[in-house]
Amino acid sequence: MKRNDVNRDKLSPMMRHYVELKDKYEDTIILYRLGDFYEMFFEDAEVVSHALELTLTGKSAGLEERVPMCGIPHHAAEVYIDKLIKKGFKVAICEQLEDPKFAKGIVKRDITEIISSGTIINANSLNEKENNYIGFLYDFEYGVVLTYSDITTGEIYSEILEKNNTDIIYKVLSLEIKELVTNTTTDKVLIGSLKDNKVPISYNDNLLDNEYTNIYEDITDDRVIKSIKYLLYYLNIDQKRELSHFQKVKIIKKNDFMEMDIHTKRNLELTENLRTKERTYSLLWLLDNTKTAMGSRRLKSFIENPLLDITEINKRYNIVTNLLEDFITAEELRNDLYEVYDLERLCGRISFGSASAKDLLQLKSSLKVLPSIKEKLSKIKYYDTIDTLDDLYDLLEKSIYEEPPNSLKEGYLIKEGYSSELDELKSLSKGGKDFISKFEIEERERTGIKNLKVGFNKVFGYFIEVSKGNLNLITDDMGYIRKQTLANCERFITPLLKEKEDLILSAEDKIINLEYDLFCGIRDKCKEYISVLQKIAKVISEVDVLESFALVSEKYNYVRPTITSTNEINVIESRHPVVEKVLKGEEYVPNDIIMDKDTDILLITGPNMAGKSTYMRQLGIISIMAQIGCFVPAREATLPIFDKIFTRIGASDDLVSGESTFMVEMKEASRAIRFATKNSLILFDELGRGTATFDGMSLAEAILEYIANNIKCKTLFSTHYHELTDMEKTLKNLKNKHVSAVEEEGNITFLHKVKDGCVDKSYGINVAKLAGLPTSVIERADSILKTYESKEKKKDVYIQTTLPLNFEEHSSVVEEELKKIDILNITPIDAINILSKLKEKIK
Ligand code: ADP
Ligand code: MG
């Protein structure tokens, strides 16, 4: 049954309210509060019951048929909401705004919160080590602005991109934007491809004017401001989020950081491994020894944004050096960092008004170590410092009770001595309780009933309980009023008891309310410190990352690189840091990577499994480590600054359009060739192998020539085509390298050592043997190879590779005969005759 097909006049008032509300939230699942349940109706019920495997029931709502319905218990809602968000739904919570008991007519209900993948703030559903970005894509005629923000921390960034759909999609995927908002007029093709790549899309066409203007007050570009205002409207008005913790927008410019696209990020396994897409075995995994969640997030952003400025890079090296030299201070500082909670997200919760008493205690513990951190920062000559916020610490220390309950509506939030009004109420309530115990003793004496008890429950309040056997001792003049009869006792009240009860209970009510108000006041006070806290968080997270660099560098023997402006690479005994770490038992074989300023290309040959891809990745990773300020796995390292890294490594399938491997290969090659400058790094691993040998070889050669003559940037190029090694003779800036293997009696051992010159054997059959192919297949392959080799020697291979079009002219007599046969018009006997004639010709 569809919501829009039903006769609305017939609907019950509540269901009419529902459908009218739903009209406004077309793309959102509404969880409609009915008593202890959140219910969904019509299409929402059908979709969600399917997605979460819930029972689909029905509700009578005035129509002949029952309306489809499914529900979740409100106390378990969080779990279900999480699941819905993970599946890409958007969820709106519709609460009861008044107590159904006192409601006249239908209960007042309205949307109180909207949750989507980009705007989750619930700590349980967020990964503390990752940012959770929501973006706005503003399509102006000649380009787009991508503004994105993590609302839990208040960071916000804007970047202007060229109008190239592939680039835009790569950018969105590479930032792992969890939800992308855009105008309804944005290019449909682009939005379609984004959806194909599982990016949840939301729409908003309204601007938020005159509010939170501080976020963009320094910006002059109208297009950027517009994209921010669109995003703010969506967050503040549509999603009802408080944004007072938002920081000033940061404009990301192309020339601020090393450029690398999503392929490079994936191929070099910077933040996740290629196979399982998990953090394990990535560079991030290796380097992450941070002590705070903020540090872990900062490290990820460091890795994704390597620096280009030598001074900035050296500033980081200097701190790592100081930390390694003054290892005692480094260790003490690490212990302090351990005490710091996620200040960025605490600021978010303070701003949203969702910070609990425990959150404020976490804030207090974090503030407590600031003086010590500040002192250590100056000891290691850190390039920045922090405020210590002693007054905020004092406020929290004297106000927030140390063991508060989870809820803010049960009292026990505020310490004694903070508010005289609260202390008075508490002593009143305590006096009342003292009265009750005294009253119990007095009544026992007055009535002579030794087991008389004064009890309390929520329905009757305070009462006197007398067991059945003693009832005869109660006389009328005692003023007992019967309230309740139980199996073996009776419960009474007296006017005096009720009078005191009112005092006690109203004091307790007042205490709870007052504690709540005081708490909110303190939380608001914290709000005033948000921007200072965010500044502190930035310093702490960065120093946490540098501590992590120092720790890893020490542990694995990394060396401080020298950054040069002379465009040469001189890395001695370098290793691939992750492969080195995961090699169990075996020794990693270090290799030199040396390219003087006149060498631009290393052409690397060698058998499969020799270590070519690893060697190429090694240079990519070492360059990135160097440019994020980390030491590198080598004995000695001199490196230039790379402005961009392009890679084509392995046969990763296309993310965007499902094109064939070869097409993707060529597209990546074309991007590299178009956008590389002489300061870029290109890593091409067996480029061209996705097509037939001769095409592949020709393309590879042409591309190499182009790089060598026009771009002249540092390039590592591995290949199976030994023919290409002749290029060393004609291209001055190309050098041959090979990775060696030794063969003994048909068995092959890989040495993983990169050496000068080229090899002419590819050992494919030896590798196949290692892989366990049956002996008969290996032997047969070997003999086929021998016939090929003897034929090859007679021809000029080089000419064939560059003139593939000549193939046609070489077609044989047999081929010509075959072409003439008209299969449909010959008999089987003819066929046998032709066949025997053809065989004759081959001989
Ligand atoms: P290729 O690209 O030449 O086929 P890979 O680079 O994929 O070879 O390396 C094959 C395997 O050899 C890797 O999985 C790695 O474990 C190992 N390996 C590569 N280089 C080294 C090295 N320098 N030292 C030790 N093992 C290495
Ligand atoms: Mg390889």
Describe the structure in your own words:
This protein is α/β, with parallel strands linked by helices and 843 residues long. It contains 28 helices and 27 strands. A hairpin with a 2-residue loop joins strand 1 and strand 2. It is elongated and about 135 Å long. Residues 579, 588-589, 591, 606, 608-614, 752 line the site of adenosine-5'-diphosphate.
- H/I helix tally: 28
Largest sheet report: 7 strands, mixed
Tally the beta strands: 27
Name the hetero compounds present.
adenosine-5'-diphosphate, magnesium ion
Quaternary organisation: single chain
- The order of strands across the largest sheet is 13-23-24-25-21-26-27
Distance between the termini: 77 Å
- Cα-based radius of gyration, to the nearest Å: 37 Å
Indicate the mean pLDDT.
90
Helix/strand class: alpha/beta
- The low-confidence runs, each spanning 5 or more residues with pLDDT under 50, are 795-810
- Sum up the overall morphology in one term: elongated
Residue share in helix: 40-55%
> What portion of residues belong to β-strands?
15-25%
Any key phrases for this structure?
843 residues, six-stranded mixed sheet, binds adenosine-5'-diphosphate, binds magnesium ion
Topology of this structure?
Elements: H1 13-24, E1 29-34, E2 37-41, H2 42-52, E3 57-59, E4 67-73, H3 77-86, E5 91-96, E6 109-115, E7 133-140, E8 143-150, E9 155-162, H4 165-174, E10 179-182, H5 188-196, E11 201-203, H6 222-238, E12 250-251, E13 259-260, H7 262-267, H8 283-287, H9 293-304, H10 310-325, H11 327-338, H12 343-352, H13 357-368, H14 370-379, H15 390-399, H16 420-447, E14 453-457, E15 461-467, E16 481-485, E17 489-493, H17 495-527, H18 530-556, E18 562-563, E19 569-574, H19 577-582, E20 591-595, E21 601-605, H20 612-627, E22 636-639, E23 644-648, H21 661-675, E24 681-685, H22 693-711, E25 714-718, H23 727-730, E26 734-744, E27 747-756, H24 764-770, H25 775-794, H26 797-802, H27 813-820, H28 828-842
Parallel strand pairs: 1-5, 7-10, 9-12, 10-11, 13-23, 18-22, 21-25, 21-26, 23-24, 24-25
Antiparallel strand pairs: 1-2, 2-4, 3-4, 5-6, 7-8, 8-9, 14-15, 15-17, 16-17, 19-20, 19-22, 26-27
